[in-house]
Amino acid sequence: LRITVNNADMSSSFLKLLNPNYSGLEVTVGSGVADFDKLQDAIVFANAQNKSHTFKLGTGVYIEELQAISETLAHSFIGADKDRTIITDDARNFEILKISGGYFENLTFERKTTGYCVHADYAKEGVIEFFNCKIKTVSGSVLGAGSHQNQTLRLRNCQLYQKGATIGTGIMYWHNNVNANVSGQRLEMFDCDVYGDEYALRIDDANKIYSDGTMPVG
User: Fold this and answer.
1) Which residues, in sequence order, are CB contacts of 49 under 8 Å at separation 6+?
2) Cα–Cα distance measured from residue 98 to residue 19, given in angstroms and rounded to the nearest whole number
3) How far apart are CA 88 and CA 165, in angstroms?
């Protein structure tokens, strides 16, 4: 279900229904009159409050290595325009986004060097969701995910782009958590487009690969 309401003063309870991560606490990010110039600074601020926040990003290019890893918080990140709100490494070689939870909408994540653009392999129960986002990398997987206990990775109306040499990891790479007795792990993809020369999707059973999952064999 997708509802778009323009020029309306929606109640916090209604927004909470649309996005379970919505807390009513909003922070703006961007140049000019925004609360923060840097998104990572806004994340640090929100974490210090120990409350999930919604970050509204203005258009522009953000050269940042973002860490939104928490076992208790799940922030929301809303871009003003998917094609003009871009988070990138600008060829400085780092993973753009490391996440354990949260909601991401109307954003482009673009890694201009080889490797994961988005890395989701951190414990937190709940849903990690991307809606109407572009995720790009030069080679390998654009999104690498190791799903944890009761954790769902969901992509809706997203485009994944890989351009470069193939290394067999898949444009989208998902595996279960490398631990014994972990359950409730889900990958959901709806209305997504995948572009590149790699496998479109690779799914691994890490426990089968690594025996009981406590450590690699050999």
Assistant:
1) 25
2) 21
3) 20
Residue type (1 letter), 191: D
In the β-sheet with 97-99, what is the strand arrangement from edge to edge?
66-68, 97-99, 118-120, 143-147, 172-176, 201-204
Q: What is the pTM of this model?
A: 0.84
pLDDT digits (tens, 9 = 90+) for 137-163: 998 899 999 888 899 999 999 999 998
Within 10 angstroms of residue 160's Cβ, the number of other Cβ atoms is 27
Burial class (CB in 10 A: 0-12, 13-18, 19+), 40: middle
Strand order in the sheet with 54-57: 26-29, 54-57, 76-79, 102-105, 126-131, 151-156, 186-190
Q: Classify 39 as helix, strand or coil.
A: helix
Beta strand segments in 106-150, E: 108-110, 118-120, 126-131, 134-137, 143-147
pLDDT of residue 1: 38
| Lookup: tokens for 41 | 């600074």
101-128 tens-digit pLDDT:
999 999 999 999 999 999 999 999 999 9
Residue among 159, 96, 157 at smallest CA distance from 131: 157
- The position carrying tokens 């939104």 is 68
Which of these, 130, 173, 128, 126, lies nearest to 149 by C-alpha position? 126
